[in-house]
Amino acid sequence: MFFKQWLPRAGDALPSPNGLSRHFTVQQYTFAAIGLDPKSLQRPIFNKILALVPMLGLLTLVIPMIGYASLYKSDILKVTDALSPLWEGVLALSKFFYFIWNRQKIIQLLRKIWIKNLEVNNNPEELAILAKENHRDYLFSLTFCINVMTTGALALTAPLMIATFYALKGEKFLKALEPPIKAIYPFDFQTPSGLIMLYLWNSLFVHFIMFGNLSFDGIFFWFNCNIAAHFRILRLRLTCAGQENGGNITKTTVNACINLHRQTVELAEEFNKIFRINVFIKFAISCLQIACLAFQLARGKEKADQIFHFSFLISVSLQFFLYCYGGQKIKDESLAVSNSVYESFQWQNVETTLRKSLLIFMIRSQKACNLTGVFFTADLPLFLWVLKTAGSFITMLLTLADDKN
């Protein structure tokens, strides 16, 4: 692949696991696009230009966007049009700085799971489970990446298409051109030089929003799929343990399963500690963001803008669904261990001391590993609740717009 030559080559990077095609593929490309390497403890920021220039392009546009929203605060359509990309930019900035601040913890957790994946190579059945989960991660991450990049392209090209349409009707192209990102600009963008400056600035903004969110959300889903895979591998080992010696299991086998469960639960808890702040921030913003984009769809006029807002709405919804589905998946896979303990063994053949150990193991596994957002649990019911709440916000915005008219 042509872009492969631009990927970082860290000296402390771990080898790729055999038998896992496209393992961590999407994540390493999206991180590389903003100058980061999540596989390296020695050099997590491998390109400071890629890391800083787009970020500064976004950061310097935040105040002009807030100024635009304040200037047109009486126009609900213009305010919501400015706030939707602003909130997505805030999310991208928060994820970027959170990764920089917690890079040691994130990279160490990645390396722990990566090493566990390398150890699975010796067992074909366990490798098949790991391969399936990583293939799911690849498909979802790639789909999300394509959708987000399509939205970014539409954000930049929709104003050009609209201006071209009006130019064909006899108006001047530059006079009909609206900026891709609604803000108060310190220069006249309706001149050739101003147009170039506008698109350079807006392109940096869009670039950082896309890859700032794609990278962090992508590594979140990779963690999620691989931790879930190790819970499934544990269940497979419990089934194999129950068939050992015709049902006469040994203390060594039981202790190995208990230790694997303890290690996987610790990974899930560490994963939760790292990501719960970002889950909370995403939850706090998603309701308003979905409502604003849906309002734009309901009240927008230009077809090109409608297509952009529809694509943007799908991206935001997928982004939040990723967190909720991930939390539900960890919860379900951790709870399924308890049933596997109960179903895998011929209890009448198990020694009394081992039976007590298995009962304690089963009771512990009945406590779910949850992904929390500080005050709540991220799962599919939360996703439905956010959609319902966003629906209430949409009704409020439509009412406000009707009252203004």
UniProtKB/TrEMBL annotation:
Keywords: Cell membrane, Membrane, Olfaction, Receptor, Sensory transduction, Transducer, Transmembrane, Transmembrane helix
Coiled-coil stretches: none
Keyword Transmembrane helix included in the entry's annotation: yes
Transmembrane segments annotated in the record for this chain: 49-70, 82-101, 138-168, 204-225, 279-300, 306-325, 368-387
One GO molecular-function entry: olfactory receptor activity
Topological category with respect to the lipid bilayer: Multi-pass membrane protein
Gene Ontology CC: one annotated term: plasma membrane
Chief site of localization: membrane
Protein name as it appears in the record: Odorant receptor
Organism: Glossina fuscipes
Lineage, highest ranks first: Eukaryota, Metazoa, Ecdysozoa, Arthropoda, Hexapoda
Gene: LOC119636362
